[in-house]
Amino acid sequence: MEYKHVVNRIMLMIALFIPSFLYLQAQSVSDSSTIMIQRNLRYADAPLGIGQDTSSDRLLDLYLPHTKPMESLPILVFIHGGGFSGGDKGAKGNVALCKEIAAKGYAVVSINYYLHLKQNKIQGASAGANMKDGLPKDGKFHTGLETAVKMASADTELALQWIKNHAENYALDTNRLAISGGSAGAMTALYTTYRSKQKILPIRCVVNFWGGLASTDDIRASAAPLLTFHGEQDDLINVAYAYALHKKMNELNIQQSEIHILKNMGHAIYNYITKNEINTIDKFLTSNMPAYE
Questions:
Q1: Quick one: which of 113, 228, 232, 248 could link to 208 by a disulfide (CB 3.0–4.6 Å)?
Q2: What's the pLDDT band for 66 if we cut at 50, 70, 90?
């Protein structure tokens, strides 16, 4: 009887311990401390004339889950903001966001790119001057801003080519690729997906943080689904851009698309997104880039 009593106590302790152990294991999967980061990988030759300005150089940071994947990793390309005149992939808010997304099981490719409006001071070409009051009536931005977006998108295509060339080295699944960005980076992501006509890799979906397009006319019925976050009180890129994009998605019946207008919030609210919306982003990416059965 005493032996059976001891055995029962041991079994009870095991029963109590295992769930706690499994819970800790499950938590570690979404813990950003488990992320490995390879910084400043060159994805293309440096642009001419930038000198030592690494913020305009063609470099990327690669965020990978620490645990070895059972299958190739889905990919999120992230493009930082800064009005094409500033910003860097290494900014604190960008890094924190990329870590949390990578911790959900994604390979995050965060890029720097040529900052046209940093290298060329052009009166009236800033994002604020063009976008703070709403959409342009003629469906066009200032030519300087249009050029900045196109040049950033061209660099993004070079990054996509790097991903395609190095997919096997890093266990990247090029059939499950999404693109994202904040502000100018979101403008670049939107342009690359819906206007550039690039054929390097298929873009399955887009996560748009307070960006916009001058016109939604180029978005077609076969377009990638779009998840948009935009501050209601954004005084740099008017919230009208978010509504215009979502209206177009509805008109085209792209039902997977979502819009989240953030009440009483302004521009570049990365901390809020990182603390509160990672699960929303993960759910959207997972539904549009499902794992193979």
A1: 228
A2: confident
